[in-house]
Amino acid sequence: MFAILRHKPFLFLLLLNAFFLSYLSFLISSKNCSCISIVDPKNIRLAANSGNSAKQTSGNVHAGEASEFDPTVENSALLDILRDRNTFTKWEERSLRNQGNKFRLKCDCPEPPKWLWKNDVNDRRVAEGRNWDEALDKKLQPMVKCLAMSPLSYVGSGITTEPFQAVPILGLYIHDKVIEALENDARDVHFIVRSVSQLGNIHISKNLAPELMDDFIVEGDGTALLNITFVAGKLRSLNLIIDKLVYKSNSFHVDKYDQLEVNFLKFTNYINVHVRRQPLPDLIDPGDEDDIAAKVTVITKTFERYDCLGRFVKNVRKFYPTVPIIIADDSEFPEVVDEPNVKHFTMPFRDGCFAGRNLALSQVRTKYLVFADDDFVFTTNTSLELMIEKLEDKDLELDIVSAPIEGLISLDYVFKLALDAEQGICAAGVLSSVDAEQREVPGYPQCIWGEMLNNFFMAKTTVLRRIGFDPGFIYAGHEEFWLDAVGKAKSAVCNDVSIGHYRTETEKYGPYRFQSEARRKRDPHLLFGNNLCYWKNWEFEEKPETYT
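Above: the chain's sequence. Below: its structure in token form.
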């Protein structure tokens, strides 16, 4: 055998093909072929007749809305893709997704009224919407074609539908060699599809050529269990029929997976269907392209440092005269801050650092925001335009960009998080095995990816709102926010921008700060919120062992 493989590979392939066909003939002629699938035909009838009143028909299929469905792949090039390839190019995958969206509800938008054309806001909305869609497309579950050692090829994942809507079961195809072998057999052949979680029903299109109607019998059309019996010797229509199968969601779920169990001959395959209610976009009008004040807002939280706050506002105005500034203030006796384009919100005394940041965040109306402490100082190196440039680079998919603070060590770490299956998660410091070169941002050598960054950053407003600042954490905090952001935002630090730091202590501010620092490391709130059983920088007498 090895000699044949080495010297005559073509002969070996012929022998392998003959073996495959012989094996198929064995499966077909087996004594147990009356129960070709792992599903008992008796159960098929029971399931088909329970709930929905399924009818057994000969070709003439009808089950409520099933007549609306015609999922036939219309593009012959797509048929070639489904049959002859085991991978998809981006264009091919996009074409298949378009086919999969065939039954999604669609509309024709009316002509916008005159008031909506004001300041080109409608054009900006459409552009932002397209950007949103492009970002979502990059995160879609990839479409995977499954060939394997089975007579059936299929798309195993990437099939998605909205609740109560339908999607074609893409890619079902029986190899021509298999059909050729089956045509010579005198037995009927079953093709069975079952919704494992019963989140949807399987339909077959009524739109079939009249000459094919006598080739098959259907049980359970429009139910969670569909059985198609192909009449012996009439398998020419097999691929035409299974190409018209449709899955329709029958219950309301926001984000859940169903599995389709497909039985053919003695093979069982599983296809994932994602029932997903697509969230509506969170868009914020970016305003005029050249107006930075329409794009970004500066927010800060202050406590008992009005000289410091005054300097901060004056300094921002020096470089960005019209950019909005939002201040959250939980000082005991608030002073009036009356400056153009500055919003000053007062809070109960010592309501908390993060509660104040949340208050300021809630009032932002621009696409981006900058967070800075009130003792930071804008300099000639504090370029908001350079920060926006990274956030608007579609290839980066960046959510937060941080910058160094002059006079302080720049933070650019990745958290070291380990799992205790019984007790929770250990925040065991930072990963020392991942160096800066591995984390360099493509196209921006001055930037590196990270999770634990500086307290000066610009973020996409919608992303930061999803993370938020936990108001239950009342003390001054830094790591706490970045831990909350893990897995929710993609962040980097870039050294082509920086901000100054003029550290200021007041008679009233200092004692509260150091008191907060001591209490912070014994506050169980954040441990609970992130299911942490250990945090390296807090007061634990023992350290956990970490291993891979």
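Confidence is low (pLDDT under 50) at residues 1-16, 18-67, 72-78.
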